[in-house]
Amino acid sequence: MKNLPLILILAIALMVLAPVSPHSVQLAQAAGFTVENTSDAGPKSLPQAIVDANGTTGATISFAIPASDAGCTVSVCRINPVTELPKIIAPVTIDGWSQGGPGYVGPPL
Length: 109
Fold this sequence. Notes:
The protein is an alpha/beta fold. The chain has a domain at 29-100. The chain has helices at 4-17, 46-54, and strands at residues 32-35, 59-63, 72-73, 76-77, 92-95. The strands form 2 sheets. The protein has a 3-stranded parallel beta sheet, covered by helices on one side. Strands 3-4 form a two-stranded antiparallel sheet. The longest helix has 14 residues, at 4-17.
């Protein structure tokens, strides 16, 4: 019990110094990219989302294409690339269910 105050002081010192230590561990958050149009290229397109996701690890590509997009008819949106899609070279999740919105339980999109 004689060492208890010393142990407490060391524990507090470690807690205070740990965040500024050069060996601190930082958790990386996976990136997310949202496809918002059926275009063959450009911002918010599937090809651009793939390129962006390739620059990260563990990214998720989701979809939120409005029904007013030129590639959509009734409730179906089609992405028909004129050129080959970029190769996926990093781990990525392509979440096709996201197009239906939160809680969507209908047929696959």
